[in-house]
Amino acid sequence: MTTEKPRYLHAGLEDPDEDGVTSLVAYGMTTTDGEVVYLIIRYFDYENHSVQGDHLYMSFNEAMDDVFKDYGLTRSSWRELSEDEILRIDARIG
After folding, report:
1. DSSP state letters, the chain
2. CB-based contacts of 71, cutoff 8 Å, min separation 6
3. Sign of CA pseudo-dihedral 18, 21, 27, 33
4. pTM of the full structure
5. Per residue in 29-66, pLDDT tens?
């Protein structure tokens, strides 16, 4: 069992990708075994909750490596989500 705390992050893309994605959210979730996994949610329009899709990663590092390869986002590209943003996203996942 891990003691890692989930992270909740947002990153905007400078330009939409070929699918029209404009931003990403890294949403940490704790499994029943106490492990933290990450859902990377791809948004057409973050402010209007328009989701393109998502992908589950088994670790934060795996998620960050993949979004760097796919979108060129570095760890400094991300900002922390507010409590309201976290609750809004959580309500749409569950």
Report:
1. ---PPP-EEEEE-SS--TT---EEEEEEEE-TTS-EEEEEEEEEETTTTEEEEEEEESSHHHHHHHHHHHH---GGG-EEPPHHHHHHHHHHH-
2. 11, 13, 17, 24
3. negative
4. 0.93
5. 999 999 999 999 999 999 999 999 999 999 999 999 99
